[in-house]
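Morning, I've got a small favour to ask if you have a moment. It would help a lot if you went through both lines with me. I owe you a coffee for this, so here goes:
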Amino acid sequence: MWFEILPGAAIITVLLSVPIYATYGVQKLTLGNAFRRNMDERFSRVMYQRDFRLTDNPYLMNGLDAIPDEEENSQNIEQNDDFNMGDQEN
């Protein structure tokens, strides 16, 4: 009968959904954050690099207090490599 397929369909559904939900725990253990940042677009890559440069951890939420003031920044002038992603022609 048609209902004999239900146990097999339930097993397949559960087994296929395990990796989807397991990535939450794996990323929480390895990265310290349950969600990865999307790096598909150039703007997202630039924001990732900016957050990493400012706070050394792009996955933690930081406010304006994490950005150094002008006086602190004028003492050590760094090159702005945020927009040098290697996808521009020289």
Observations:
- The mean pLDDT is 76.
- The CA atoms of residues 37 and 53 lie 16 Å apart.
